[in-house]
Amino acid sequence: MHIYASSGLWKSSKRSGWKFLVNEVKGGRLLTLDTSKTFDNLRVMVCEDFGIDVNMVNIELSYLSSDLVIGIDSAPVFITNDRQLKIFLTYVKNKASTRLCVCIRFRAETSNIKVDLNLNEEATESPNRQEEPMSFEVSEEDVEVDESDDDCNREKDMINGKQQWKYVQ
Predict the structure, then answer these.
(1) I want to staple 49 with a disulfide (CB 3.0 to 4.6 A). Which of 29, 78, 118, 135 is the partner?
(2) Number of domains within the chain
(3) pTM
(4) What residue numbers bound the domain in which 34 lies?
(5) CATH at 32
(6) In a 3-state reduction of DSSP, which class is residue 149?
(7) Using an 8 Å Cβ cutoff, are 64 and 77 in contact?
C-alpha cells in the first residue's frame, strides 16, 4: 500500500487543536509499505527517501487519527514499535487520506556524551554554530504558521511525544 509521508513539526492551538506544519523544503514522499515491514525498516526507508543519514538523526513517526479524535486537544498518535506500525497500517487501509508525519531531530555524539538537538526549535547563537544549516533542519521559514489562530499567548509543541508549553510574544 502507498503511504504519503511529510516532514515537519506538530503545533497545537487553543482554537483548532493539533496540526502538522509541513517543512516546505523537505516536503513529502510516497512510501510503499506492506504488513511485513518492521518499525526499523520504516525508519530506514523514511531516512533514505528524505535524504538523511539514519545514524545522524532521531525521527518521530506519527499521525492524527481524525475519526478517533474526541476533541481538539486529542494529541497525535506516535508509532514507536512494530505493534504500533501494524495498527497504523491496518488503520490506513480504510483511511487513504491518513498522512504519516515525520519529525526529524539531529543527533550528535561527542566522546561519551550524547547530545540530542531539536531541529524544530529556533536556533540560538553559539560560537561553534555552523553558518550553513544542515539540509534536514526545520526552521520557521520552512513551515507555514497561521498565527491568527490563537488569542492565547502560549503555544504547545509536540517534541519527542511529549507536550511542551512555551510562552510567545
Answers:
(1) 29
(2) 1
(3) 0.64
(4) 2-167
(5) 3.10.20.90
(6) helix
(7) yes
